Amino acid sequence: MHCILQVSRTTCRYGEISLSGETVSYGLESIVLHHSFKQVKGRTIKIDCRERTHLGGVNGAGKTSVLALVPAFFGEEPERIVTKASGKLSFLDYYLPTFQSLIIFEYRRHTGLYCAVMYRHAQGKPCYRFVAGSAEETFFAAEIKELLQGGASADDVFAALRQRGTTVSKMIDTITNYRAIIQRNQKLLKRLPADARALRALAAEFGLGDSDTQMTNIERLTHVVLNKHRLLSSFKTMICETQFENIHQHARPRAIDRKDLIADIQSLSAFAGEEEKIRTCLRKDAERRAILEQADKTVANLFVTLEEAREKAGELSQQKERLETERTDQRSAFEEADRQLARQITDHNADFESLDRQVAALHRQNEKYEADDLPDLAQRFDNLADYRQRLATAQADYDNLTGKASAIEGEFDLEKQRIQREHEKQQAQRQQRLREAEAALTSAKHAYELKLNSVKADKVTAVSEYKDTRSLERSELTSEQARLSALRDNPGQTGAEQQEIASAEQASEEASEQLAQVHENRLEAGRKRDQADRDWKAAQEQVQHMDVKVQELEDRFNELQKQIAPENGTWLSQLRSQDPEWGSRLAKVVNPSLLHRKDLAPTRDPDASETALMGWQLALDALPVPDFAASEEALQERSRSIDTERQEAIKLRAETEREAQRRHAAYKERAEIAERLETEFSLVERTRNNAQDRLANVRLRVKEAQAARVATISKDLEEVQRKLKAFDEQTGEGIRDVETSFHQQILDIRAHWAEQESELQSSVDKQNELIASADSEYKARLRKKRQIYDQRLSEEGIDPEVVKEAREALAKLTGTVEKIIASEDLVRGYRKWREQEWSKVETLTEQANQANAKREAVLRERNEAERTWKEQDRRLKVSIAEHQNAVKTLRDQMEAAEGVLKHFPGETLAEGFPGNIADLTQELQGAYQKLEQLRKEVVGTFDQATSILNRYDNTQIQQAWQKLSAYRRSQMTGEVLEHEESFKLARVPDLRELLDTDIPQLRDALIDQFVSEAGSLVKYFDSLEVMAREVKAVSGLLKRKINTDQQIESLSDIQVVLEPRVYEDETWQPLKEFVEQWQTWIQMNRRSLPNDAILRRFKLVTDTLSDAKVKESVESMIDMRLEMKENDRQVVIRTDADFLSASSTGLTYLAIMTVFMGLTRYLCPDLNTRITWPIDELATLSPNNISHLADMLEANNLTMISACPKLDRSLRKFFENKISLKQGRIHTYETSANQGKHAGTFASVSHGSQPSLAIAEAEEVPDHE
How do strand 53-56 and strand 1217-1222 relate by DSSP bridges? Predict the structure, then answer.
């Protein structure tokens, strides 16, 4: 819908007739510049502008600078007049460069001429004063003129005026107050209640016009007229600033704030979505911390145990070293003893070998003698006499055989007797030697048997003694075998093991009992927590119910307040002020929603029937008076009642909130207790499990120790059995060695006896043989003698054979005797050797046997010593290995303990007690593994939580987290890095603080903030709707109030079209949908965070608002265009560019001026008050258009002051006052009486200098044109 401003023709004329018959007109009369901008610096100039005035001069003469002061007279902001940019001066530094500078506006009010003065304040700002009287009467009085010429400051001038009795107002230090006074703007006069009375008094004393004069925004209008190149845009700006200033336009919510709010809510929702994980994380962290605390005791125990283990390892190492030293010493002692025994063996062996060599040498010599048949020679030598006798007999026999016998018979008898006697004699000797030989044999045999029996007895004694020496050791081995067999068959527990098992069983039972108790407490705490949670949620529901109730009462109360005190401009306010009885008539049929609207422009027709409605007469008495139309007293009573109920509800809500907070605190307390008991349960369960594991480990360790002991005992038993077997074998071997030694000795004795017996027996046999041989020979000789005798008798001769035999026998005996005699030396040597050397063979043999026995004994002793040493060395080696294994085991356990202790580097404050290092290490390793698991889970959840916090940058929850982190960092010593796990773990409890303290507060705050932001969007939406309606209202108002005096034949149907832009803006639809959805959702979710759907629409509104074409200013919400018909051709002007590119810029300018004139008289209805328009570059218009403009201005009591470099002759007729500004001087084309009177004064007033010096060279000042 378009709002059209219709500019129509008016025939109203201005002016009132005074008592003297003259027309009264109030307005600006002249502008006086004293020591002002550069072109007039050091001078005082006056520009009259009561009538239409033309200001000429070259470019840069200061024409536009003078025109810009017209809006300043009406109170335009100095910063708008002169925009300070790079390299440019401000208004103050340009127009009022010194404390002597003055800008004097001479104006007429109903009491006469007055002056409004602008001057420079010491604080560097422009200030204002009003002076009662004309410029001539005040500032150009003689004494004041001297001050001005002498360079007096503004304060000195005002002081001098006061001394002259001139009324000078107090200093006005704000442009707003000055504007309120000069324009008699009632709204501005009332804006500050404390200063309202003083401002009204100043307005009454110094304001423009008379008591009926009121104007607004004239300063803006005159400033817009001055800026020809931005005429349309400036006009739109002025319309928006002047016609919509009463609208309370809610500022568009800042998109960045809403985006932050969305991020805050999303972060809170995302974080709340992870709350269960975070709670689990907190419980695990509590468990982790409790395990750490529990592990601290284990660490202390392990430290003490580790120290004991180190000491024990040291002791075992020392014992091992001692055993190694002992082993080395025993080896050294054994080697020393072995060397000594070896030397003894060597010595005994040398003795034995020496004796054995001697015995062997004797036996070899004996064998050589035997080989040489010396024993036989010795026997024969012993029987040499016999052999000689036999030789003599044989010789005699041979001689007899070869000699002649006289008497054979006699000889035979004698021979026979002689032979018999010799034979008997010899046989007797032989028998004697035989008896001696037999006696020697018997004696030797007896000695041999005695000696043999003695050796045998010694053998039995030696074996018995050897057995006796080993029986004790065998008894020990046998006893050890029996003991080990008994231990193997019946393995038991040691006292320490029994005590350790009993202690572990007791600890396990106590831990199980404690776990059962804590479990019961945990269940009870969980039930209490759940009950507290239900109570808290019930209280929350009650709080929400109370919120709804309080809000309903608030709405009812506010509605009543709106009915009791309606806003100005609403229909209800008009009804209450103009129709007190409306409740019994109009209220019965009117829609209540219309009563609070401001766009209806209600006007009461006093002549209309009170019961008429749109031409209808209704019997309204039949209808009851509606509640909204009740009397003010009834409404006040109802308001008080509702307010009392509301206050009670607010009080009850506060109590409900306190109860909810109390229940929440109780829930938190019980939740903390339950969580603490959960953690305690986990710890006690872990303690129970550790105790059971420790019991199982102890039992397993005892079982393994028993098995190890059984294995060791079995091994030792096998070793003892092996030793026993080896001992028996060694004993048997030793016995055999002893027996072998004695057996050898017996063999030697027997061998020696056999040899001796053989020799003695040989001697006996030899004697027997000799006896037998002699007897045989005796008998043979007798036979031969008989044969010979018989032969001699029978033949009387000797048989040659017999002689031959006798000769051979004689030769044989002769050879034997000669041989025996020849071997005498050998036999004697042999006999001597036998007596001296061979007689030692038995002794030497015995000595050799004894030496051999000693050697064997020492060898056995050496072997026994070596066996004993090896056994002891083996035992020491086993003991050393056991110590080494024990040390290694301890070191492995210590290494494992130290390895796990590295994971617990902090110092422990708990008192440690020694325990089993393996159990403690295992327990601590289990604790570490659990801690690592919990650490990873806690850090993982912590990282997830912080990733959510970091995902929403600069949110409140992140800021709260950063504060907690900063505080945590300040509590830690040393440099702390954000990514360090230790810092993360230290901050995990801060998550609880975030969840339990910050997030509830943030949640409530965000709910309130979102409700506020959503409310601001609702208000913004409502204000946009109000603005859209107000645009239509303003259009209608301008149409009614602005009457134009159109005197331009080429133009018709001039219209200003206003349209609201909000409906076409892309933000409108998302905003509308959000408001509708929000108002539905909030009714049931007053204390809840907005859901995703609400947030999506809210974010859409946020995004569209940030890119919205409609800005926060009213101007951006309105489209304005100027429509007209130019020579029956429709022309639409939307922008300044359209204006400048129009086919007829002059006509378009006149059309806009037509609208401005109507608006001027709307803003200043008093036609007696003349408004001066500053118009620059008027010469660009045609004379015809200027003529039309002049007529229209005069018709509306508007005058103009125009500026252009030169004034054409065709334009002069339109200006009553024509002046030129040249080199800081005023040149008048048509001099009036008033002007001519002070022309010299104005030209000569300077800053304390001579007139000739006051004329400064004119410079172009394009910055202020």
Answer: parallel
What does the domain layout of the chain look like in residue ranges?
Answer: 23-215+1207-1264, 262-295+917-1002
| CATH for the 23-215+1207-1264 domain, from 2.40.50, 1.25.10, 3.30.56, 3.40.1140 | 3.40.1140
In sequence order, what E strands does 347-458 have? none
Q: What is the DSSP string of 468-503?
A: HHHHHHHHHHHHHHHHHHHHHHS----HHHHHHHHH
Q: In one letter, which amino acid is 186?
A: Q
Written as six digits, the tokens of 863 are 């072997």
Stretch 1056-1069: mean pLDDT: 80
Q: What type of residue sits at position 1142?
A: A
Please say whether the beta carbons of 1214 and 1186 come within 8 A: yes
Helix (H) or strand (E) holding 48: strand 44-48
> What does the angle CA 331 – CA 334 – CA 337 come to, to the nearest 5 degrees?
150
Can you tell me the distance from the alpha carbon of 995 to that of 961, in angstroms, rounded to the nearest whole number?
A: 10
Tokens of residue 610, six digits: 């009170």
Structure tokens, 587: 């209220």
Give bridge partners of residue 52 from the DSSP assignment. none
Task: Give CA–CA dist 404/1194, Å, rounded.
Answer: 240
Q: Are 996 and 668 in contact (CB under 8 A)?
A: yes
Residue appearing with tokens 């009662």: 132
Contacts 24+ apart (CB under 8 A), 1156-1159: 1156/221, 1156/224, 1156/225, 1156/235, 1157/1044, 1157/1045, 1157/1192, 1157/1193, 1157/1196, 1157/1198, 1158/7, 1158/10, 1158/1042, 1158/1043, 1158/1044, 1159/221, 1159/238, 1159/239, 1159/1038, 1159/1042
Amino acid at 1230: E
**How far apart are the C-alpha atoms of 1094 and 368, rounded to whole Å?**
142
Q: How far apart are alpha carbons 935 and 903 in whole angstroms?
A: 13
**Strand pairing partners for 1173?**
1200
906-951 confidence digits (pLDDT tens): 777 778 888 888 888 888 888 888 888 888 888 888 888 888 878 8
Residue among 942, 944, 943 at smallest CA distance from 989: 942
Comparing CA positions, the residue from 1099, 908, 1020 lying closest to residue 301 is 908
Of 90-104, 275-289, 650-664, 1218-1232, give the lowest mean pLDDT range.
1218-1232
Whether the Cβ atoms of residue 266 and residue 1095 lie closer than 8 Å to each other: yes
Strands 102-109 and 53-56: unpaired
- How far is Cα 257 from Cα 33, in angstroms, rounded to an integer? 50
Q: List phi, psi (to 5°) of 125.
A: -145, 155
Give the burial class of 455: count Cβ atoms within 10 A of its Cβ; 0-12 exposed, 13-18 middle, 19 or more buried. Answer: buried
Q: Edge to edge, what strands does the sheet with 126-132 contain?
A: 44-48, 27-34, 102-109, 112-120, 126-132
DSSP string of 230-267, one letter each residue: GHHHHHHHHHHHHHSTTS--PPPPPHHHHHHHHHHHHH
Distance CA 602, CA 946 (A): 61
What separation in angstroms does the CA of 593 have from each of 559, 572, 589, 600?
A: 11, 10, 12, 12
Question: What is the average pLDDT across 1059-1086?
Answer: 82
Percent above pLDDT 70 for the chain: 88
- With a CB cutoff of 8 Å and minimum separation 6, the contacts of 969 are 976, 983
Region 714-721 average pLDDT: 84
Q: How far apart are CA 406 and CA 447, in angstroms?
A: 59
Max intra-chain CA distance, the chain: 259
Entry pTM? 0.51
DSSP string, 561-589: HHHHSPPTTSHHHHHHHH-TTGGGTGGGT
Q: If residue 128 lies in a helix (H) or strand (E), which one and from where to where? A: strand 126-132
CA distance 198 to 209: 19
pLDDT per position as a tens digit, 358-414:
888 888 888 888 888 777 777 777 777 777 877 887 787 777 766 544 456 567 777
